[in-house]
Amino acid sequence: MTPRVTVLQLDTSFPRIAGDVGCPDSYARPPQIIKISGASVGSIVTDTPQNIDVTPFAEAMYHAEGDIIVTSCGFLSYWQDHLAKLSDRPFISSSLVALEQLAAVIPPDALQILTFDANRLNAAHFGRYPTYVHSILGLLPTHHLRQVISQNLDTLDDAAARKDVTDLMAQQQTQEHQHILLECTNLPPYRAAIKAATGLPVTDILTMVEAACPGAVDPRFN
After folding, report:
1. Distance CA 157, CA 204 (A)
2. Of 209, 222, 220, residue with least CA distance to 4
């Protein structure tokens, strides 16, 4: 049977297009989406992740029905081990968990980590890999996708978001770069465009879900 994904989603209402971790069309089978009441972008996207109240996320873990559980915000990486212990199924809080494999072959100066807010993602989110904070690259405040997320807007201009992201990544490339990690779970819709613009392999939350639970992700995004 096709595996099912449970998404612990922040309390947001902005559009989630195919490829977004919170969009049902991102998966091979309709996911279970548990919206965490009160978990706003402002309360989770913080430079002090140790102060996040993860009690609602912990409670939601016990209601998860999927074969794998993920969150809709990579800034929850600080709580990976704590929450993973609450389930016997694979749990991925953030694509930053991929550093466990990537750090073995790619040094910080060869990796680009694209995040929603570079001013708030810091060493506390990186666990055993704090030197990779030097790999962080953030969406600009003027970028359409960042405005949609931060302001919880009702509409998303997919073409504008795609252009902002691909232009940013193309402009930031150097000969040293070998790999791109998309920390933000709203960025996977643009993975193919980023790969085309940079020529680099890209890891994101959906590629990680598919690696941990083959067949769970729609083939367009795995």
Report:
1. 21
2. 209
User: Where do runs of H (alpha helix) occur along 69-214?
Assistant: 80-84, 99-102, 144-151, 158-171, 191-198, 205-212
Q: What is the pLDDT of residues 39-77, one digit of tens each?
A: 999 999 999 999 999 999 999 999 999 999 999 999 999
Q: How far is CA 109 from the centre of its chain?
A: 21
Numbers of helices and strands, H then E, in the chain: 8, 8
The whole-angstrom separation of Cα 97 and Cα 194 is 21
Which residues on neighbouring strands pair with residue 5, listed in sequence order? 68
| Type of residue at 12 | T
DSSP at 20: B
Residue that the structure tokens 């096709």 belong to: 2
d(CA 136, CA 190): 18
SS3 33: strand
Q: At residue 6, does pLDDT exceed 90? A: yes
Q: Which of 182, 184, 96 is nearest to 148 (CA)?
A: 184
- Of 40, 7, 15, 21, the closest CA to residue 184 belongs to 21
Domains of the chain, each with CATH number or no CATH: 5-94+207-212 (3.40.50), 96-204 (3.40.50.1860)
Q: Are 69 and 8 in contact (CB under 8 A)?
A: yes
Q: In this predicted structure, what is the pLDDT of residue 222?
A: 84
Asked whether the beta carbons of 183 and 116 are under 8 A apart, the reply is yes
